[in-house]
Amino acid sequence: MQIVCGPYPDENMMEARWENEGGKPYETIDFSVVHPQHFDFADRRIKQRVGAGIVPVIVGGWGRPQGGGESTLAQVGLDGLKRHWRNLIARYGAYPTVWIVGGEAKGTAGMEIARYDSASGKRTVVAGDGQGATYLSADGLKWEQTPNTNASLIAVFGEGVFLGSNWRGRIRRSLDAIAGENVLEAEHHLEAIAFG
User: Fold this and answer.
1) How far apart, in whole angstroms, are the C-alpha atoms of residue 58 and residue 97?
2) How many whole angstroms separate alpha carbon 85 and alpha carbon 61?
3) What confidence tier does 129 reach under pLDDT thresholds 50, 70, 90?
4) Fewest 10 Å CB contacts: which of 62, 127, 180, 182?
5) pTM of the full predicted structure?
6) pLDDT for the residue numbered 122
7) Mode of pairing for the β-strands spanning 57-59 and 98-100
8) pLDDT tens string 13-66
């Protein structure tokens, strides 16, 4: 299940929509002051899903510009994003988790954060460039960028097959996460896909 635990696309930084019952996740735009009450509620939700057998796919934010026109990296800074990842890994790293550096994360900063995350322990790390390129890494240190075609926005892997969704309501199947084929077109968009 995809869970965005960071800046959202198309929204301004630190706006009210970031709040849950405990408030905003951070008190400062550089993520140097954590708001613990926000994460108390987030922690409960993620623990509940893991307890139900659902693997969280944690997206750390978005690489494209926010509503204000600047990227998260430009507003928060690389040190701020690393603080954000340290917080997420400390909270959820013991769970079976897939980590996505950021939706549409482009350039060397996204790769540096992926390397930083991978150095923190054994976990699956994916860095995405939106549709158009797939980044794959066996160790989280060396990354290979491969142009993709008909790719899914998000995918799960099981029994040798990647299965993912794309706008609008398309379910795509791929053997290599590079080239996908439509296997279903639903009336509404699908965000969650699981094997089992």
Assistant:
1) 7
2) 10
3) very low
4) 182
5) 0.64
6) 44
7) parallel
8) 888 888 899 999 999 989 999 999 999 999 999 999 888 888 787 888 776 667
Q: What is the DSSP-derived secondary structure letter of residue 16?
A: G
Q: Cα separation of 122 and 27, whole Å?
A: 30
Helices 78-92 & 36-51 angle (0-180, nearest 10): 50
Q: Do residues 56 and 138 both lie within one domain?
A: yes
Last residue in a domain, options 130, 147, 164: 147
State the residue range of the domain holding 185.
Answer: 149-196
Statement to judge: residues 140 and 157 lie in one domain = no
Residues 134 and 83 in one domain: yes
Centre a 10 Å sphere on the Cβ of residue 69 and count the other Cβ atoms it contains. Answer: 8
Same domain, 6 and 98: yes
List, in order, residues 6 or more apart from 165 with CB less than 8 Å away: 152, 153, 154, 155, 171, 172, 189, 190, 191, 193
Based on the fold, state whether residues 159 and 142 are members of the same structural domain: no
